[in-house]
Amino acid sequence: MNKYSKIPYQWFPFQNDPGYFITYFGDIYFGSLWECPGYEGGFFIVQNDKVRKAIELTPSETTPEKFRELGWEIKDYRIIKEVRDRGTNFNHAPVKPLHFSGQQFSQMYVFGAAASTFCVFGDRAKVFRQADYNPPTGFEIFDEKYKPYFEKYPGALMSISEFESKNRDIEGCLDEEWCAYKDTYTPEIPARHINIQFYLQQLFHCLSEEVINKEYRYNLFNLFCKNLQKQLSTQPDQVATLVSFNYDTILDHFIGLFSSPFRTMNDYFDWHNRNMILFKPHGSCNWGWKFGKNNIGNRSTPQLVNDLWEEKIEPWQIYYELIGMLTETVEYGSWGVESGNNIHDNGRYSLNKNLIEIIPKNCSTPYLPALLLPYRDKDEFVLPYQQQFALTSCLDQIKELFLIGWKGNEALFNRKLKAHAHNLRKITIVNPNPDEVKQNLVKAGIDLSRFELEEVKDFETFVLQRMS
Predict the structure, then answer these.
(1) What pTM did the predictor assign?
(2) Could you tell me whether strands 28-34 and 19-23 are parallel, antiparallel, or unpaired per DSSP bridges?
(3) What is the DSSP letter of 47?
(4) For the chain, the helix, strand and coil percentages under 3-state DSSP, each to the nearest 5
(5) What is the pLDDT of residues 93-103, one digit of tens each?
(6) Closest C-alpha among 466, 468, 463, 465 to residue 118
(7) Any residues with CB less than 8 A from the CB of 369 and at least 6 apart, and which?
(8) Residue-number span of the structural domain to which 81 is assigned
(9) Per the domain annotation, does 33 fall within a domain?
(10) CA–CA gap between residue 58 and residue 137 (Å, rounded)
(11) Is residue 319 part of a domain?
């Protein structure tokens, strides 16, 4: 046992009485402290509703693996920056019940990075693929053509050598670092990841604008929305559910042209007034949490980004000091939402996702990017809680699923799909490598033998031939 894996003596009272444990990476765990007999790798925060299970463990069941199902493991007490007692009050704005008025949600379209990367058809496609504004797939986000963007972000710039040394497995590298800074107090890693978030926010904002302005003539998203709107016009009760794991706003833009623009976060799932709704589980380059004016002064976005990097400001300080006070920026009801998203039903609090806003164009007010870095295994939804419930409601109803340029490797979405898509009958895989998609779905426990399967070689073929 190293000296950091023991429960500090000043926290002994929380072995009997639960408290809120605030980590430096921003997660807040509520529960009491437990040690696993014979295990020296760390201690555990067992959440309140699982304490009885912990008490009833038999000697043979008293293992680290079992305790990880009952709460959160702490391998380094230094990751906990503050402990508050159970009397702490958080903001409480319950999720409102969702209402339907005869809408049907039979079809869901899921878009991955390849859809944006190859969103131009015909002879223009080759030119677009080489353009410096072509949206990257995951392993391309630090390609040399994006140097004008990433050279402004030292956290992004200094990460490139390691990505290259590991065969550009960016997702694997970031995930490995996430596991490291989650288990050991290493504040330089989250500082670098936050810097990369700001890079990705600017990169995809600029690329989206250029694609929309320059590639309107042969744009597949344009045609997709047009064809879909045509189909829906003959089915007045149908609402198409679109899910995009991409940060860019190209699809958002064309949905807005054929329906109406997204001006508020609620517009994305306003099925009462639009027949195409959109969910972006990993966030968007035009979403963010607004920094409190009184907390950052008159600093511009570049100034603030530089200060966050230079001073290695930790995420918990950003969430609960610079954006707002902890009692304002934590949503009490989020515990249950996050518990439902966790593989072991372990709850947590973090920065309130209901506070995510659409960043106004040409806005000078700094926002923390609301987008999930491309980790390989760490998965969560960067969606307001109301949208998360709405997405689940749509999954409950879908009969046909279209996977367009998506590899099928988002673990949380796959768990939701498996748990809720009981009416699903057919899956269409739009991908030049459909076997990879099927392997990922099977790995997630989805029984493909239950469904009719169709394969389409690419986005262009799907839009120009399948939808025509």
Answers:
(1) 0.96
(2) antiparallel
(3) -
(4) 45, 15, 40
(5) 877 878 888 89
(6) 463
(7) 197, 198, 200, 201, 283, 285, 287, 288
(8) 9-85
(9) yes
(10) 49
(11) no
